[in-house]
Amino acid sequence: MKHDHQNAYLLLFRGTDWHRGLSIDEVRDVMSRWEAWYGGVVEAGNMIAASPLENEGKLVSGKNKEVADGPFAESKETVGGFFMVNAASMEEAVELAKACPALPYGLTVEVRPAADVCPSSRVASAAHGTT
């Protein structure tokens, strides 16, 4: 999907157990508010892509390309899903993130700007005098 990287921000939802300790009615209420929040972002034309993530996966690492079951982060740090949104600025993207209904229950939202070029590639290009 094509989009303007200058206005694209990734909202990473961290925490896969925010709902623990809540009653089923409380979880339903939060999820209902989440769906309304998501729908509002879509309706406003700010949504580029979004998806929840399963709790299990694989971790590929190292020179030998070792594969292990993952993720290994603590459940409060595990990425549970994402929104890729269009926003005029980091501040606007942060305001979208602040509306997340699960924040009061321990979920966190990391907001990161999308890059036109991989930052490592910029370092390599600068070292070789190219841009």
How is this structure best described in words?
The longest helix has 20 residues, at 24-43. The strands form two sheets. Strands 2-5-1-6 form a four-stranded antiparallel sheet, covered by helices on one side. The relative contact order is 0.27. The mean pLDDT is 89. It has helices spanning 24-43, 90-98, 119-127; strands at residues 8-14, 47-52, 57-61, 66-70, 79-86, 108-113. With 131 residues, it is of the alpha+beta class. The chain is 29% helix and 28% strand. Strand 3 and strand 4 form a beta hairpin. The chain has three helices and six strands. The chain has a single domain, classed as Alpha-Beta Plaits.
Annotated CATH topology = Alpha-Beta Plaits
Biggest sheet overview: 4 strands, antiparallel
CATH class: Alpha Beta
Number of strands: 6
Q: Write out the strand line-up for the largest beta sheet, numbering strands in chain order.
A: 2-5-1-6
Shape: flat
